[in-house]
Design a protein that fits this description.
- The protein is of the alpha+beta class and 148 residues long.
- The protein has a single domain, classed as Nuclear Transport Factor 2, Chain: A (Roll), CATH 3.10.450.
- It has 5 helices and 6 strands; from the N terminus they run αααββααββββ.
- A 6-stranded mixed sheet has the order 2-1-6-5-4-3, with helices on one face.
- A hairpin with a 2-residue loop joins strand 5 and strand 6.
- The radius of gyration is 21 Å and the shape is globular.
- It starts with a helix and ends with a strand.
- This is DUF4440 domain-containing protein.
- Pfam families: DUF4440 (PF14534).
- InterPro entries: DUF4440, NTF2-like_dom_sf.
Amino acid sequence: MRDILSISRLISGVIILITIGCSAPSKSDTQYIINELMKKQEVCWSSGDLECFMEPYWHSDSLKFIGRKGLTYGWQKTLENYKKSYPTAADMGKLTFTNLYIEQLSTDYVSVIGKWHLERSMGNLEGHYSLLWKRMGGQWKIISDHSS
C-alpha cells in the first residue's frame, strides 16, 4: 500500500511540475524577452545590418508597417523601404529604443509604445512607435509597426 501511495504522490508531483513548466510566461518574462529582442535590433541597425534588424518582424505578406509614407504590407516591402530610406551606415546612424509602455494583452499578444532615436553625424532623427507583437511557434514576432 505504501508503494502505491508513494507512486501516486510521485505522479502528482510530476504532473504539477509539467503544468508549471508548460504555463504561459509571466508578464515580467515576456517584457524581458521583448526588451532583449529590441536591444538586438538596436545592435543590428547600428551595425548597418537591416536583415538582422528585421528578424523579429513577421516574415509574411500580411505584416503591416505604417510610417510617414502610409501603410506598407509585407516583410520584403518593409525591408526594401528601409533600404531606400537608409542606404548607407551614415544614414542609419546609431539607433536607440526607449520603451515607454508594454502591455501584455493576452498570452500571445503584447503592445509596445515607445520612442526611437537615431544619432547621426548628418543630424539626429527621432519619433515614436507602436508595435503589436504576437507569439507564433514559441517566438515573438512584430505583426504591426506604426512608426512616426
